[in-house]
Amino acid sequence: MTAVQDRVAEFLEGGRRNRRDIATPEGVMLPVEIASVGERVVAFVLDLVFWFGASLIIFLLLFLMLGPLLRLSGGGGTLVLGVLLFIGFLLRNFYFIHFELVWRGATPGKRLLGLRVIDRKGGPLLPSAVVARNLTREIEMFLPLGLLMSLKDAPGAAAWESLSLGAWLLLFTALPAFNRDRMRAGDFIAGTIVIAVPRRVLLADLVDATVHYAFTERQLRAYGAFELQILEELLRRPEGEDTRRVKRDVCDRICRRIEWPSPVPDPEVTLFLRDFYTAERAWLEREQLFGKPRADKHEREKAGTAR
Amino acid sequence: MTVPLAAGQPPELLPPAAIALKSSEFRRGREASWRDLEGLIARAEKRGIATLSAAELERLPLLYRAALSSLSVARSIALDRNLLLYLESLAFRAFLVVYGPRIGFLEGAADFLRRGFPAAVRAARWHLLLALLATLAGLAAGYMLVDADESWFSAVIPAELAGGRGPASTRQQLLDTEIFQPWPGPAQSFALMANFLFSHNTLVGLIAFALGFAAGVPTLLLLIYQGLSLGAFLALHAHRGLTVEVLGWLSIHGVSELTAVMLCGAAGLVLADKVLFPGRYSRLESLALYGRQAAQIAIGAMILFFVAGILEGGFRQLVASTPWRFAIGGATGAFWLAYFLSGGRERRS
Predict the structure, then answer these.
(1) Do B207 and A139 touch (CB under 8 A)?
(2) Which of A244, A248, A167, A236 is nearest to A203 (CA)?
(3) pLDDT per residue over B292-311, tens digit each?
(4) Which domain holds residue A161?
(5) Of A129, A212, A284, which is closest to B79 when you measure between CB atoms?
(6) Which of A162, A196, A230 is the last residue of a domain?
(7) Is B63 touching A (CB cutoff 8 A)?
(8) Which residues of A touch B7 (CB under 8 A)?
(9) Interface confidence (ipTM) of the complex
(10) pLDDT tens-digit series, residues A54-89
(11) Do A130 and B5 touch (CB under 8 A)?
């Protein structure tokens, strides 16, 4: 069943998304889509922007409140910088951990892109897992970033040292590119994956209770579930010049294949396709219930069912 | 393969005839409950699960299970792609709401301090022992090296961390500029020094933890190196008859700081252990299972680093008396020991 859906998705969207099944505690397999590296990077950059904005606002407030005090104690620039870095460090970790806990696995950046963190096995997402995957981020992301940024101040030998250390650490950063589930080191440690959660809308059933065309079983035998679902997508497309042309084309192909005796007039095309869809689905669903599922038009009749 | 078909269908429209699909009837019967669930989830996703009323919260898991069973049925009887995709997405979104974490940051932190952290440390006691042994080995080596030849000191400790100390330092210099250096004032000591030390130490700790992932070799090297520089430092002072003073100077913060370093090391070693010897799990499963425990130790060690940073940056120079320094160091040590041994244990009645 799922194989057919995968093929339909590949046919319609021109590519296969990385999918993976997780088992809910009730024992039902649910397919999830692994978030791509691109989506992850965009979400992370968005989070960085939010974090930076929040830090800036808090720094400004602190500066307004504590400015006079600092001038009195004569701490100078380095003192301010040090305190800022420390607050930034705390805010950053609080930001990621807080949102992944309260929004059930989504930071604002992930939420905007429709990404979620879930347990790899389908169990509940534990707070310790959230903490684990976010602590590791310090080493995967911010440590190499900091090292690379400190390069320009460092003298020759130290620069080489931090460059090689940075390169080695960047291997950790690039880990998601090297595994199928796009897990970074934090995901390995916490047992989590990041997925894309598409929202689907339930559309009206295409099946008409009343049909105007009748088809014989031999005619319905010409197609399988794959073609049926492609036809479904076509029928669900919004009306338009383009859609009408494709429908006409599909209608002619079907007529040729099932040897429909008379041509279908233009105004009747949608009605004909809809009736054919209804009849085909009714027949295929019945066959499936009887244990004879038919995946596509190329599937040969099984020996026992041939007549 | 084309199936030979018989021609001879009526070319004109037939009178409308009724056709019944099991999957359509199934959908008509269940659709209301799916829509109900969808509404609840949309609200929980947008405004949080707290906005659902008690009655709705009671309904949520029932509707969720109903949606799951609908999905199972639909998979076997329906070929409607939109319906199947919708049910999969609905069931999954409901799954996320029903099984998501239910606690906030503060509750999580409180539970972590009361129970999670000490329990995780106790569970990793053998790794902690190994980390301690590695540090001690480094310490002994560093002490012996510098004891035999003081020029090793500058080889072991990089110049920017040595702060002008080295084989050329005299006893009086060490006493004045280091051990009993005057207190620089609150802003300098608490904000700047404590913060610098905290950031530096935390980084070292985090590296020790995360590199456990690489089979633990870097972690052990880092621990040995920490011991090595400490040993070199001790030997330099011992040669100038300052053993007691320097121990006091170190103990005030070193008790917390070394404990934290070794906790991070132990956390890294837990990772290494589970990657190298996964037992009856796969390596990935084993890492996921124990990674959380290791991360708990590492984040707890951050708290110790914080305490150490405050003690080192702020109080070390303020408390200019060796006995008092020993007292504070001893008290923090006793506190951590009691905390790790007793925290979060089930009370026996």
Answers:
(1) yes
(2) A236
(3) 788 888 888 888 888 887 77
(4) 28-196
(5) A284
(6) A196
(7) no
(8) 259, 261
(9) 0.80
(10) 888 888 887 787 666 656 555 555 556 666 777 777
(11) no
For residue A94, tell me if it sits in a domain. Answer: yes
Answer for the pair A294, A233: CB distance below 8 angstroms, yes or no.
Answer: no
Asked if residue A173 lies in contact with residue A141, where contact means CB atoms within 8 angstroms, the answer is yes
Q: What digits encode the pLDDT tens for the residues A18-35?
A: 788 888 888 888 888 888
Angle, alpha carbons B254-B257-B259 (nearest 5°): 100
B185 pLDDT band (50/70/90 cuts)?
low
Count Cβ atoms below 10 Å from residue A113 Cβ, excluding itself.
17
**Interface contacts A/B by beta carbons within 8 Å:** 264
- Interval A142-169: pLDDT, tens: 766 766 666 655 556 566 666 766 776 6
Q: How would you classify the pairing of strands A210-211 and A29-34?
A: unpaired
- Residues A100 and A249 reside in one and the same domain: no
What confidence tier does B226 reach under pLDDT thresholds 50, 70, 90?
A: confident
Q: Is residue A262 very low, low, confident or very high in pLDDT (cuts 50, 70, 90)? A: confident
- Rounded to whole angstroms, how far apart are CA atoms B99 and A104? 9
The answer to whether residue A49 is domain-embedded is yes
Q: Are residues A187 and A41 in the same domain?
A: yes
Same domain, A227 and A164: no
In this prediction, residue B301 carries a pLDDT of 85
Q: Which of the pair, A124 or B317, is modelled with greater confidence?
A: A124
Same domain, A190 and A222: no
Is the same domain home to A47 and A138? Answer: yes
The total number of structural domains in chain A stands at 2
Reading the block at residue B150, the tokens are: 């003081």
Cβ neighbours of B210 in A, within 8 Å:
136, 139-140, 172, 185
Q: B57: which residues sit within 8 A by CB, 6+ positions away? A: B49
Tell whether A160 and A118 lie within a shared domain: yes
Distance in angstroms (rounded) separating the CA atoms of residues B57 and A49: 35
Q: How far is CA A58 from CA A53, A64, B333, in A?
A: 9, 10, 36
Contact of A51 with B114, CB cutoff 8 Å: no
Query: What are the residue boundaries of the structural domains of chain B, listed by start?
Result: 22-99, 106-342
Buried-state track A60-87, b at ≥16 Cβ within 10 A, e below 16: eeeeeeeeeebeeeebeeebbebbbebe
What is the helix, strand, coil percentage profile of chain A, to 5?
65, 5, 30
Residues A37 and A141 in one domain: yes
**Do A267 and A164 have their domain in common?**
no
Contact residues on chain A for B95, CB-CB shorter than 8 A: 24, 30, 122
